[in-house]
Amino acid sequence: MGTGAYRSLCACLVVLLAVGGGRVLAWKPADGPLKTRWTDEVSPEKALPEYPRPQMVRNRWTNLNGLWQYAIRPKSEVETPTKWDGEILVPFCVESALSGVKKPATPEERLWYRRAFPSSALAGQKRLLLHFGAVDWECTAWVNGKEVGHHTGGYDPFTFDVTDALKPTAGENELIVAVTDPTNTGTQPRGKQVLSPKGIFYTAVTGIWQTVWLEPVPKAYISSLKIAPDIDRELVTITAEGADERFRVTVYEPELQGKLMSTTKIGKRDAPVEVPIPNPHLWSPDDPKCYAVEVELLDPDNATTDRVSSYFGMRKIEVKKDADGLNRLCLNNKVLFEYGPLDQGWWPDGLYTAPTDAALKYDIEMTKRFGMNMIRKHVKVEPARWYYWCDQLGVLVWQDMPSGDVDKSAEGKANYRKELKSLIDGLRNVPSIVMWVPFNEGWGQHDTAEVVDWIAHYDPTRVVNEASGWTDKGSGDVADMHNYPGPGMREPESKRVCVLGEFGGLGMPVSGHTWQAEKNWGYVSFDSADKLTDAYVDLLTMMRPLIGQGLSAAVYTQTTDVEVEVNGLMTYDRERVKMNEARMVEAAKKLFETPPKMTVLAATSETKPQTWRYIMTKPKSHWAEAGFDDSKWRSGPGGFGTEETPRAVVRSGWDTSDIWLRRTFKIDSLPENGQLMLTAHHDDDAEVYLNGRLVRSLAGFTRHYVPSWLDDESRNALHVGENTIAVHCHQTTGGQYIDVGLSDVIKAKPPRP
Fold first, then answer.
1. Residue-averaged pLDDT of the chain
2. Are 183 and 139 in contact (CB under 8 A)?
């Protein structure tokens, strides 16, 4: 910012003070397609007033949220504007209704902010820090015309020391912030932001979108904490970083309401201190108790010069084998199935920013209410208070790294690594985070094994899921599959645990609660709450046998509708739960019971080819019966279809309108107290027969292998010895494929108390 521009700004300071120093000018949210129940609670005086950093708290701070001046100018104009476009409510992005602006700032433009703050914010301390929760994407700040810092990255908190730019005498200081954001024209992480939103991609977010605040600190102060619990050794390791002096750590037992529970420990700067936690109270979704901790800097006379408070949870996450030799996700040395929603973290009024802290908390509370114990935070990073509520309410978190076209250049890859490190540094101490997910569905995926190895060494306390979805490179701790509507799982592996990273996507628009009235989108659409609930319960019921085979977690798409995507458990405005909640909860609870045992009677050809007899001209009428002579039919491995059919495992070609299939399997005894399950991938219509009896008609097509229950009459078709399964599939248009398998599922007996 040039000196001439700065003198012009000083001449306009009286106008600035009306915005930043006290008098609140007229403000209201901009008109938008949809509000929430919290929209009207937002005002310049109440713009996210809560303390923004729950894991490192100091008593003195100044919240800079509220009305600022703003201007949108061409990116080529680097001098601070002399005229301003109006007022914007920080911390809501300029594109949001709650900003009061609701205008785009394109990659060819620069977004400017201006406000004032008093020198009294220093509060008698030596240094004054200016904190930004997050700014998307490239940010430069000036105080009283002097540049105080520059930052790139749309998701991580950052701090500028503004002390040397403050006015030497009491009075108001001028703060200028300039932001540019390439959105999807660049190679930086951006999550689901695009300039032209549609389908599963949403409105761009530019500029400040988390709390801005000032914090006075002494000359030597604690810049950060590292907290690492160890439940096996019954201790916690704490490191105070950035200080020049000794520090003292005091831990408080959660059950003793603030009373000291362990001997105070003294440490040195940047050196870890181990604090014993005898017989620790373990953190879990069912019992999310956290320990409070206080860290003080000490001078040579043992006087306290700086003090911060924090908290931690005593918990452990790992992958290890169960009694059947299957890899499982374990919490605190016990197997725990993890189930929860894909959570986008978008709001119709605030976009990336929840309107209030109560709104931020609400989605987590509802997740718990739906019978879930986990959230996958999808290609977005939330404000620190969101993780605080997960810690306090007891929800496990899978944390995605925001995606983008980061693989397109060396610069993009280098910046990805920088922002990935910032993500882990910022969230390392959060008890609820149990998994890092660096890539999603191949979006920007690169150097997978190298990235995974770096994460595993940088933070060995958590599980690493190399890539949720499509592009599996065999690294990390997790084999992750996406399967819509699903469910499904990869074949069990010797070292990695199997999870279903996305499934469901059952859609239903609710009139009066959508982003737009028509042309909404879902993976599968329904027209009533009853039908939607039936489909959801069926998916979870089909999942239970997979848990018995080794499936250790599942992520349902998704928490809420987002813009035109109507796959939510709730509407975008959070006003409607779309399904019968009691049935939702009951189905979810069963996922945590002892899983059933499944015996494969006739395997599919998904992973290993199975031999079938087949013909492509119509056979005689009794072709499906057990005694039919199929010796003149051709023989070949399944599945059958055309190579261009999506996700088909074609081993034998079929390009005519119809195909008839037969194969036999033997059983030594009739299964008792079980239920038959058919697994089929069909494109298009198919009929399945068991020993000549029609047991299932399959309409339309699937994009993958889908399990479904057969009724008791189907079980009666089985007999000891050789049995015949026969299939007719008819192709109508587009791709074509057919393969089926049959299993017997027996409900497991509950463990003895």
1. 92
2. no
